[in-house]
Amino acid sequence: MREKKKFDFNFNHVEEVKIYRHAVEEDSRKIKKVKKIDEKYYTYKDWREQHVIKKYEHITYKSLCDFNKYLNRKLENEKDKDNSMSGFIYPILIGLITMMAAYVSDGFQNSDFKMLVTLFFIVFFTYYIIKYKMFEDIAIKNLYRDYAEIIEEMIKDKKSLEKNNNERKS
């Protein structure tokens, strides 16, 4: 059995998300309080130039192409995960809301009130779990999308540089 690499292309997903969110979030002060982050990337431009480009500028053209495929695959996986989660949770949420509406419309007894309160809290917490998860998923998708765009630019630059070098040799 082939041993899986811990982090492909020197890309630690957890750390990259922390660094990215710190650089691009409007209110990064909240994130700083929660997580320790390298504070040298204050803006998107800093993150782009000082982190991503410096980290991968020494990588060969072929490796950059492979890394770009890896990033695009991860982005597609995030989209698929989001779709499958929505397909699972939203019907449950709709069912719970329908049950609550049925209790209210039929008039309810004291024991029904306890059930209604319980259903309300389940719906409330489910909604906030979905909201939090969607917020996290958006940040992750944006990270992969931005990373892929930067790597694509680097690929174009390396390709044109190789082309210029080949023309000089001729």
Describe the protein in words:
- By secondary structure, the chain is mostly helical.
- The chain folds into two domains: 9-58, no CATH class; 60-170.
- Helices cover 81% and strands 0% of the residues.
- The protein has helices at residues 13-24, 28-34, 44-56, 61-106, 110-169.
- The longest helix has 60 residues, at 110-169.
- It is elongated, with a radius of gyration of 23 Å.
- 9% of the residues are buried.
Total number of strands: 0
How many structural domains does the protein architecture include? 2
Secondary-structure-derived class: mainly alpha
Strand content is under 5%
The share of residues in helices is: over 70%
Radius of gyration: 23 Å
Overall shape? elongated
Distance between the termini: 47 Å
Helix and strand string, N-terminal first? HHHHH
Mean pLDDT score? 76
Biggest sheet, open or closed, and with what strands and sense? Answer: none
Q: Which residues sit in consecutive blocks of at least 5 with pLDDT less than 50?
A: 1-7, 27-36
Q: Helical region count?
A: 5
